[in-house]
Amino acid sequence: MKAIAVEKSGGNRFLKTYTLSEYLLKEDRAVEKHEFYNGQIILMAGAKFRHNQISGNIITAINMAVMSLEKYWVLNSDQKIYIEPKNIIVYPDVVVVCETLQFWNNREDIIVNPLLIVEILSKSTRKYDRSDKFMIYQTLPSFQEYILIESNEVHVESWFKTTDNTWNKWIANDLQKSIAFRALEVEIPLAAIYRRIF
Predict the structure, then answer these.
(1) How far apart are the first and last CA of the chain?
(2) How far is CA 57 from each of CA 36, 105, 192, rounded to the nearest angstrom?
(3) In whole numbers, what is the pLDDT of the chain averaged over residues?
(4) Between the N and C ends of the chain, which has fewer C-beta atoms within 10 Å?
(5) Which DSSP state fits 23?
(6) Which DSSP symbol is given to 50?
């Protein structure tokens, strides 16, 4: 991640801090996407072809799998999530909400109740998505499942929250197999996730 708000003061460099309201005003006018980390505005890296193809594939696969259920909302990477306990706004790659969409402050671009979040990993985001970002998401009461998809190899992980507030992990890395999305009670074939990639 790269902070964009850097100013000079004498010979020292420091990061300017912003309020959430200031961030939202800037983001509403911005051409590129930025995340907000308790006062810091962070420029998001642009996605490459594999990432974009996998993102489209997984959104399609989830929508097809839950089509008859009509209780899930499957949202793309333009949907922001506000994590109020941490004062953080992020743009996950894919978000699934169950039943009612809860918008923060009546803003339809910001939700607060994700059930399932998908992140597509790259060299620059892998470490953060697996550690700190996962911990941040865990502060959301509605959050039940975290799906991590590698973009340069066939490898999908599902982290599912159990009743005793621990997280169980499942891995699939064979295009002939499927991986269970336990929060949705469906299975997604890896061949669908990686269609036209491998």
Answers:
(1) 28
(2) 27, 31, 6
(3) 92
(4) C
(5) H
(6) H
74-100 confidence digits (pLDDT tens): 999 999 999 999 999 999 999 999 999
Burial of 100 (0-12, 13-18, 19+ CB in 10 A): exposed
Is the pLDDT at 6 greater than 60? The verdict is no
| Token couple for 183 | 């929060």
AA letter at 174: D
For residue 4 the two structure tokens come to 């964009």
pTM of the model: 0.91
- Give the model confidence (pLDDT) of 129-181 as tens digits: 999 999 999 999 999 999 999 999 999 999 999 988 899 999 999 999 999 99
Q: Which two tokens stand for residue 24?
A: 């939202």
The Cβ of residue 4 has, within 10 Å, a number of other Cβ atoms equal to 14
Q: For residue 51, what are the CA distances in angstroms to 9, 12, 54, 83, 107?
A: 39, 37, 5, 24, 27
Tokens representing residue 105 in the block: 């402050």
